[in-house]
Amino acid sequence: MSKLAFIGGTGVYDPEILTDLHEEIIHTPYGDARIESGKFGAKAIIFLARHGVKHTIPPHKINYRANIYALKMLDVAAVVSTTAVGSMNPSYKPGELVLVDQFIDMTKNRIGTFFDGDRYGVAHYDMSHPYCETLRQAVQQAARAENILLHPHGTYICTEGPRFETAAEIKAYRMWGADVVGMTNVPECQLAREAEICYCTISMVTNFSTGMTDQPLTHAEVVACMKENQSSFRKIITLLATTYDPDTDCSCHHAGQAFGGFHL
């Protein structure tokens, strides 16, 4: 039976809804990944703290390939991730959630594919709609059931980090049509697509981006906002763990069909 996994971003390090937790180190061709396996009722659920359980891994040093490959090794078929973001859209306010549906990649030094001509051949995956629509619909239904405000659309621009963006960069990104900015959703999203795993991300707006207010931005502010509002994540994730079947057939599970599929 396939599994559901949650990837926790900044401020979400503890899989509180799970029982029988135990930590595992998964050895992959791309390095080791640290995950936690647990139960929600009778269901096996996987949790992965993207930055480590003590936030020791900066965005540009996360081993995204090892993380996604490890989830594939553990028969994960669907991933819901959380991300902390700054808002460039005045309608998306701190404390609110955004279910992004597009991204712009501004990273510089990350390996963003399994198909680099080495272990796998060369493949060009369609990313017209990078986030799984089946999973997005399930998240939206969970949010409605819990009366949680969730903006159903948004464009996420991913920067390299670990520094925050300049005011000039934010001005340019707004002109491009980006709504929120973060440092981690790429290449995580595209690697999940290559591995034929359904994937979506719930973004928590922690602040308005640089240059949109007169206040300087701090990491402490981001973490504090996440802690204050993570109950909304917990409610959505709890309902998904109850109702979502990761074996639901979806085009994501056949994304690599033209290239022979993705095989471990």
TrEMBL record:
The pathway is: Purine metabolism; purine nucleoside salvage
Cellular component per GO, a single term? cytosol
Gene Ontology MF terms: S-methyl-5-thioadenosine phosphorylase activity
Q: Which catalysed reactions does the entry list for this protein? A: a purine D-ribonucleoside + phosphate = a purine nucleobase + alpha-D-ribose 1-phosphate
**Which InterPro entries did the record assign?**
MTAP (IPR010044), Nucleoside_phosphorylase_d (IPR000845), Nucleoside_phosphorylase_sf (IPR035994)
Q: Which SUPFAM superfamilies match?
A: Purine and uridine phosphorylases
Looking at its record, which EC class is this enzyme? Answer: transferase
**Additional info?**
Although this enzyme belongs to the family of MTA phosphorylases based on sequence homology, it lacks several conserved amino acids in the substrate binding pocket that confer specificity towards MTA.
**What does this chain do?**
Purine nucleoside phosphorylase involved in purine salvage.
Q: How does it assemble?
A: Homohexamer. Dimer of a homotrimer.
Q: What is this protein's name?
A: Purine nucleoside phosphorylase
- Organism, as annotated: Allisonella histaminiformans
